[in-house]
Amino acid sequence: MRMSDLVAQVILEMLEKQDGSAEIQRNELAGSLGCVPSQINYVITSRFTPEQGYIVESRRGGGGYIRISRVKMDKGTALMHIINSVGDSLDKATAEVMLRNMLQRSMLQIETAKAIAAALSDRTLKKVEQEKRDAVRADLFKNMLLTLNS
């Protein structure tokens, strides 16, 4: 398991145990996981974004912390929020993170997530010119999510 996946898993477990809101001491978490604090920052900024249904607040200083809260919304609202956040371009890694978050929030069944991931893969899109691939992936993803929402 990659370090970023481990950090994300630990934060998600903290969110589950603390009813959707967790305060994280960045240096303390980094020390316990054996990584650098910037790795914690990377995971938070890439996987716990408003587009993915999280609010992140931070307080600097000696007793500083990072507070992550899961936004509670119904499935339809959450799907529309994700669709609107995709934009005109979507790389494979971001699509996978979004699918993983949707699975963790029980917005998708595993079979559906696997089918979407397969459709969005570079292998599937290999005949699409490289510079257009992320735009096609974004359109595919948004249309698939719209279908789920209807």
Secondary-structure map:
Elements: H1 3-17, E1 21-24, H2 26-33, H3 37-47, E2 54-59, E3 65-70, H4 75-86, H5 92-104, H6 110-120, H7 130-149
Antiparallel strand pairs: 1-3, 2-3
Overview of the structural elements:
The protein has 150 residues and is mostly helical. It has seven helices and three strands. Strands 1-3-2 form a three-stranded antiparallel β-sheet. A hairpin with a 5-residue loop joins strand 2 (54-59) and strand 3 (65-70). The longest helix has 20 residues, at 130-149.
Number of strands: 3
Overall geometry comes to globular
Structural class: mainly alpha
Could you tell me the mean pLDDT?
88
Q: Which residues sit in consecutive blocks of at least 5 with pLDDT less than 50? A: none
Q: How much helix, percentage-wise, in residues?
A: 55-70%
Portion of residues in beta strands equals 5-15%
| Spatial strand order of the main sheet | 1-3-2
Q: Whole-Å distance between the termini?
A: 36 Å
Give the radius of gyration: 17 Å
Describe the biggest sheet? 3 strands, antiparallel
Summary of the model, kept short:
The protein has helices at 3-17, 26-33, 37-47, 75-86, 92-104, 110-120, 130-149, and strands at 21-24, 54-59, 65-70.
Please tag this protein with its features:
about 150 residues, mainly alpha, 7 helices
